[in-house]
User: Which sequence fits this backbone?
């Protein structure tokens, strides 16, 4: 007969082995991570795309399922109180629900790429509300479904995209540069014309003042003529300095002749 303490030891070892098997072999089911856009704005009558992607540690198989639900934000809508399934995807096929979305919802994702997106065409004002995306990838089945708010608006109410804003900013900057360049050219031209005008006025001022000394000379000459005696005037006298060195080239070394007009007193 075995001792009692030996049975207790064997029992504890058995329980410990089972626990280790559960923890390290089977392991707990990992949580799936689902992502959607927080808000989507679509023009009425156009195609609206609702993105949904997921991350899973398990390999995607035919057993992976996608469920899209919708809850309206309009009190008079039939789907206002609770979300209703509008699309279901399983075994590689999609199944639209028999609702108002049946003819307008389409699966555009790729399960193998972990993309579960859908599109609504055309989008209507009655589609305003919250859309829920839920993905199950066994054994990765636990996780929180993602939600996105859809706003269907008129064309005039659509917010401008960042690309349009950048284009307008670049055009405005170019226009401003052109205006600055034209203004700079105009200012340079005005300054250049003003400089030319001042130069002309300076020359005219100098030429107008130049004849004044001539008048004084003429007046002095007239005065000298009036004060000079009426007697005979002596003609011009020529002074020349001759070279007496006796060289052969002395004739060519004559210094300049000085003329002087000497009048008798």
Assistant:
């Amino acid at each position: 007969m075995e001792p009692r303490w030996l049975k207790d030891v064997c029992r504890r070892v058995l329980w410990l082995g089972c626990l280790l098997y559960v923890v390290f072999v089977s392991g707990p089911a990992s949580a799936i991570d689902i992502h959607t856009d927080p808000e989507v704005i679509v023009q009425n009558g156009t195609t609206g795309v609702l993105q949904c992607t997921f991350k899973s540690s398990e390999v995607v198989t035919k057993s992976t399922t996608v469920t899209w639900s919708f809850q309206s934000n309009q009190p008079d809508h039939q789907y206002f109180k609770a979300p209703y399934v509008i699309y279901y995807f399983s075994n590689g096929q999609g199944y639209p629900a028999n609702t108002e979305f049946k003819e307008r919802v389409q699966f555009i994702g790729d399960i193998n790429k972990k993309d579960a997106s859908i599109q609504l065409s055309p989008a209507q004002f009655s589609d305003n509300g919250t859309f829920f995306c839920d993905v199950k990838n066994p054994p990765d089945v636990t996780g929180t479904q993602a939600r996105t708010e859809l706003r269907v608006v008129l064309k005039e109410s659509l917010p401008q995209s960042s690309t349009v804003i950048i284009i307008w900013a670049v055009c405005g900057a170019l226009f401003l540069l052109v205006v600055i360049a034209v203004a700079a050219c105009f200012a340079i031209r005005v300054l250049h014309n003003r400089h030319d005008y001042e130069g002309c006025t300076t020359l005219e001022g100098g030429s107008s003042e130049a004849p004044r000394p001539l008048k004084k000379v003429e007046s002095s000459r007239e005065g000298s003529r009036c004060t000079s005696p009426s007697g005979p005037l002596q003609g011009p006298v020529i002074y020349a300095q001759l070279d007496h060195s006796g060289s052969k080239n002395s004739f060519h070394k004559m210094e300049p002749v000085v003329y002087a007009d000497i009048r008798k007193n």
User: Anything to note?
Assistant: The two ends are 179 Å apart (CA to CA). The longest strand covers residues 65-72.
